[in-house]
């Protein structure tokens, strides 16, 4: 995985994916200088997520979709899109849960916890079960984090039963779609495990 991370980008799409990681780092620095520590902290939470595709050797197109989604979710918090744009949180719960669940599955493949659905003799239907389960787990953890933030940090975080269940349901739908994609499309570079 270290060799994947240190490997120079190959082609325009991999350069774009690395530029998105650079934007993530610059976003934290910019928020620390020109905004609040809270905004910088929110953006900093996205940084580890932005590095995962590089470590596991995700295909450039998936890396870009994943990184854009993570950055949009983080910046949506900073510029308050969740409150100002109707259903923005549902759009982001769907898309974020989808890409995070797919990436989590790739991490599990990398550590040989689950089989690669693209490998000969593997059951291509495994992601149809595992990816939605990962998405539901991620949705539950996220909703717990929101509740902790509301209960112990600030009451400005919007937390209601209906919102929580709706967010998790939409996230689960995104994870089901991701499971179908993972079962049918190779999301890792073909040479990723050679590194």
Automatic annotation (TrEMBL):
Transmembrane region(s): 64-85, 91-115, 165-185
Top-level division of the source organism's lineage: Bacteria
Protein name per the record: DUF2238 domain-containing protein
Keywords carried by this UniProt record: Membrane, Transmembrane, Transmembrane helix
Keyword Transmembrane: yes
Pfam families linked to this entry: DUF2238
């Amino acid at each position: 995985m270290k060799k994947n991370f240190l490997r120079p980008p190959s082609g325009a799409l991999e350069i774009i994916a690395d530029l998105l990681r650079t934007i993530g780092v610059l976003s934290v620095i910019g928020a620390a200088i020109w905004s609040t520590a809270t905004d910088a902290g929110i953006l900093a939470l996205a940084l580890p997520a932005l590095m995962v595709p590089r470590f596991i050797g995700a295909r450039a197109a998936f890396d870009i979709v994943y990184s854009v989604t993570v950055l949009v979710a983080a910046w949506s918090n900073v510029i308050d899109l969740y409150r100002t744009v109707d259903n923005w949180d549902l759009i982001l719960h769907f898309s974020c849960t989808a890409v995070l669940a797919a990436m989590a599955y790739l991490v599990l493949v990398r550590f040989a916890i689950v089989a690669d659905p693209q490998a000969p003799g593997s059951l291509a239907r495994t992601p149809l079960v595992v990816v939605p389960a990962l998405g539901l787990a991620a949705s539950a953890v996220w909703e717990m984090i929101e509740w902790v933030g509301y209960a112990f940090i600030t009451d400005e975080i919007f937390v209601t039963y209906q919102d929580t269940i709706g967010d998790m349901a939409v996230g689960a739908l995104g994870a089901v779609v991701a499971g179908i994609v993972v079962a049918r499309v190779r999301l890792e570079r073909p040479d990723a495990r050679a590194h």
